[in-house]
Design a protein that fits this description.
The protein is about 45% helix and about 20% strand. The chain is of the alpha/beta class. The protein folds into two domains: about 50 residues, no CATH class; about 60 residues, Rossmann fold, CATH 3.40.50. The protein has a three-stranded parallel sheet with strand order 3-4-5, with helices on one face. Helix 5 runs parallel beside helix 6. It is globular. The two termini are about 25 Å apart.
Amino acid sequence: MWDHLAVLATSDLGEVMAGSEPDPVLRQHLPPRHGGVRTHETHGALLERADLDGVRVFADNPGSAELGIRALRRGLRVMVTADLASAEALLAAGCDAGLPAGASVRKRPSRR
């Protein structure tokens, strides 16, 4: 997650303005790596910000899709990494909202 934010923060494609992480141990890593980025204890608090026009979601697969769909319903552009079923739900919500939504799908090898 932090590597993705570093790439976004140094690109000309947009500005990293805020992040959210319920786990306080993980949340403490955001400001030192990305100065000036506001952190939120809940994803809901982040999604309430009026100054966002898009989000990049990193969470567990079902959680990522749920957060992405919430962001789409709020009118935000969304990019998520998720499993195929979650990605399909997110892309359908993007079509319904008439907003761009993207998903990178990772197939993990089965463990035996």
